[in-house]
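From: lab user (bench 3)
To: helpdesk
Subject: output format question, protein + magnesium ion

Hello, I'm new to running complex predictions and I'm not sure whether the block I got back is the full result or only part of it. Here's what I submitted:
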Amino acid sequence: MSTDARDAVEDGFGHVSRTVGTVFRYLLLVSTLVGIVTLGVLLVYVANDAIRPLTADPGWHLTFVLAFALPSLLVGGYLYRRDKSALFTGLNALGVPAVSLLFASAAAMLFVDVVPPLIWFAYVVAVAIPLVVLLATTRYSHRIPFLARVATLAAVTVASLGVVPGAIQSLPFVPQAWLVVAATLGVPVAGVAGTYADRRWGRRAAVSVAVAALVATVAAPFAGPTIGLDPLPATVLMALAGVPTAVYVGTVVVNQPERRVGLLLPLVVVAGALVGGAVVDALGFAGPQAWIDWQFLTSDHSNTPAEAGIYPAIVGTILLMVVVALASFPVGVGAAVYLEEYAPDNTFTRVVDVNISNLAGVPSVVYGLLGLGVFVRYGGMTPGTVVVGGMTLALLILPIIIISAREAIRSVPDSMRQASYGMGATRWQTVKNVVLPRSFPGILTGTILALGRAIGETAPLLMIGAPQIFDLPTALDARVGAMPLQLYVWATTFASPEFYTTALAAGVVTLLVAMLAMNSIAIVLRNKYQREQ
Amino acid sequence: MTRENMTDEASSPADGGDPTTDEMLVETSPTAGVSESDSGTAGGSRTLVEARNVNVWYDDDQALNDISLEIPENRVTAMIGPSGCGKSTFLRCINRMNDLIDAARVEGDLFLRNKNVYDDDVDPVALRRRVGMVFQKPNPFPKSIYDNVAYGLEIQDKEGDYDEIVERSLKRAALWDEVEDQLDESGLELSGGQQQRLCIARAIAPDPEVLLMDEPASALDPVATSKIEDLISELAEEYTVVIVTHNMQQAARISDKTAVFLTGGELVEFGDTQKIFENPDSQRVEDYITGKFG
Ligand SMILES: Nc1ncnc2c1ncn2[C@@H]1O[C@H](COP(=O)(O)OP(=O)(O)OP(=O)(O)O)[C@@H](O)[C@H]1O
Ligand SMILES: [Mg+2]
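Helpdesk reply: Thanks, we reran it on our side. This is the complete output you should expect:
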């Protein structure tokens, strides 16, 4: 018997059929590609309408291929072959300024057009005072009873919010807008940069980093005009985009010498763009007549596509997102912590559980109706305002935030809770010191992805009575529109073949860029989080 | 997740439980009367922890069956027995960590310094601050090494020079030399054995009265093990140590008293370590110790 078997093996091992497996594998590949390819084709189509690359001079294309695309690709390819992590660093060094610039621009829009800097300053000071009191009392917490602390804090908060804004606004002199912004943004940004540096490079480096950040922010309003930027936006951009980029580059240079070469990529990309621009200007090559351009981004709506712009919708979206984040994050995370860490396991919580999962799937039109009913009918608020829209969208994404935050909290290993309880920690101490810090990146990722869903919602805004044609919203109780609503209006009320291929395409690209910028943060956070685990 | 509400059920049998009721003491025969006088078997030490008829169920499965024993103060008491016999469960009874397990139900009385820890007025959090614990699997926090050791000090709002306490605790846990320069790095980046020593340092930093150690040396190499054994002997001068171990020689080396649990959650024999290892009363214990079964 055994010799027979051995003989058989000497003839070869035989063959096992894999036909079915192969067919299955390619079917899976096809179904993977269907979605991606369709989406890709659509995006290319829309982007082509929005940018119209073919309207440019061939010389323009040639210049940019030679000065920009080729060198970037070459450097990218070189980095890829030499050291993939350096390429990754290079891509990050491109992504950090790009994304932070988008967010800084959003903040700058708010300062220029929505929140008068003086009022902003007044409220920042009014909120900072109780914060300082809070920090001071925490330091001596074991000497002051808890209730006394809460009472003091509440009194200080009320007094500060009641008195300080009025007092500051009635000051006999009015500080320059950029000075106010430089102080209120520069100090916290310098603080954050300093803390970061403290953790990596120690005390002395932290002081110099913080001072450098503050000086850069204060210097920005003077340097801005030399490159054609107004002082106020220059300050905001420096604080929120310049400083983070510099800190990232600094980290790479100091801590990852073997990846420094990756910084070549952003250098070549930026230099290529500048050189290309200069050459094109000098030789008089015309660029593409893109629909998405400065004029489109900064004008109001108009009935003619050539003059139509999306600026009020962008500002409306930013304001809505601020309200949504402020309203949904604390409530959602609070509910998640309660359900995971405190709630007893009984019928009531199981009913709540099932309901939250169902709520996550309720169509957004229904949430719009809910918002209309709750906030406008019963709450007596004006329909179509920033607050009503923001709170309705907050309701919409609340279940998503709760579910993702619960998932993040559940992924904290139980052994860590055990360790904390075993040390004699109370439940609150365990949640505060172990559970929340550990699950925070996950919670944040889930929240950002949920905000990415809210940014594209149109139906709830229609339901709560947002106007079809709207002005720049300048207050929380102003009537508001948003980017998806603007697109919807262009595609319906102003429907014409012209609009479809012009402003509408440009609007779609703008909306997608905004959404991708948010999601990119979530993705980076998640990758970092997964690597750390 | 019903946690603190275990108290009611668990303490009901102890109603009016005067810790020194004679009737009950008579039943815990081998060391009866230790809590009243200093004439205990463990070299004249007083009883610090006393279990009387402790039963534990996980849902309907009984994990501990009528355990009664007395753990002397400032001594090392070892718990040995085959896997799954309830040693960890018994340790968790002492600091009421079983409260955190939904399925667990504890009956019986457990006294710490003549106070029944299952009484209604006992705050399990306050209890755990007096009874430190090192878990079977190392479970450092995802925080820096320094913050791990200082955790107990911070949550308990202890006075004192934290830097110094952290250094002293790490030295006692035989870890200081290895981590001296990386106190700011995450405790999770240490090796398994280093993590275990970090957990020991964390447990002793806030200076508990009783230290429960669940196989603290299972992930350690011989050098670190012997350092930890030295530490335990040294700790026993000030603290009461209860240690679970699968290592017979270790139990024989470091403990003053030994409790032998056998499958089914029974306490088969409890007494002076020397006696248990040289001349046990029970044949089953002898078989277990000599490796014939278990
Ligand atoms: N959380 C729990 N839920 C349900 N049953 C449990 C739980 N923990 C322990 N048990 C059961 O209780 C019994 C005793 O477990 P325990 O962990 O106390 O054993 P042990 O003596 O420490 O074992 P080992 O030496 O393997 O650590 C086992 O049968 C186990 O299945
Ligand atoms: Mg165990």
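A quick orientation on your result: Residues 1-42 of chain B have pLDDT under 50 and may be disordered. Let us know if anything else is unclear.
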